[in-house]
Amino acid sequence: MFVTRKLQALKATQLSQGYKAFSALAGLDAKTPKEKLTFGSTFSDHLLEVDWDKTSGWGAPLIRPYGPLAIDPAASSLHYALQVNLTSYRHGMTKLCSAGTMNLFVYWINEQGEKELVTAPLTRGDILPGVTRQSILELARGWGEFKVTETTITMPSIVKAEQEGRLLEVFGSGTAAVISPVKLINYNGKDVNVPLDAPDGKSGQLTKRIWNEMTDIQVKCMLFEEIIRYERSNHSNSMAAWNTRGLL
After folding, report:
1. C-alpha neighbours within 13 Å on the C-beta side of residue 103
2. pTM of this prediction?
3. Three-state secondary structure along 93-127?
4. Alpha helices, DSSP H only, in the chain?
5. Domain residue spans in the chain?
6. Which of 128, 2, 126, 133 is nearest to 58 (CA)?
7. Which pLDDT tens digit goes with each residue over 89-108?
8. What is the sign of the dihedral through the CA atoms of 53, 54, 60 and 64?
9. CB 181 within 8 A of CB 202
10. What are the CA-CA distances from residue 120 to residues 82, 127, 164, 176 (Å)?
11. Residue-wise pLDDT tens digits, 201-241
């Protein structure tokens, strides 16, 4: 993790000369159990810090205990301007769009009585053309079990669906977290509750299914690549052996 901070002046050339700069670390905290790790809020006991400025570029790296920072890595916003549109609904704006790093999906029973997975269209110009988004759309359409639609979603339509018992699931998608279930939306001072009915009670059944399918594909792709590399390596050795025997 790179963090910009005013550090004691050190020449960048010290790095190439094998210079090592570090400070003594205090006793390390107990390791957090894997099941309690929270994305974006659990950090190591120390950080790799590198100072940078536009004149001299990167400085020498330092490893220091995790400590006070001008902007903590866990900060939810770097500037109010990035979050100002979160209150746009107060001005009559009701269309839902993506967060900065995720796409939003709504799974509901539409007003025609059909189960439907909906996400905002790319044609609007304000939607992230995410790879995970596209993968989910292709996966869901391949199942052919429910309608999959790219269309504008509004908060009033979600509120109405929840009131009529038609809201089934809401989740975000992105590269890092893959799938993030939504359990509650606060809109105009009122809570819109989203069902969480997977066996673990942490997501909806479709959200869980997509998560499993997506992560399985990732693992299988990595295994496939390993198998291909192994086969190529053994194939090369076999070809060389055959050639020495005059078989090629």
Report:
1. 26
2. 0.57
3. CCECCCCCCCEEEEEEECCCCCEEEEECCHHHCCC
4. 13-16, 80-83, 131-143, 155-163, 205-244
5. 95-211
6. 2
7. 566 666 666 665 579 999 99
8. positive
9. yes
10. 20, 7, 22, 20
11. 788 999 999 999 888 887 776 666 666 666 666 655 554 54
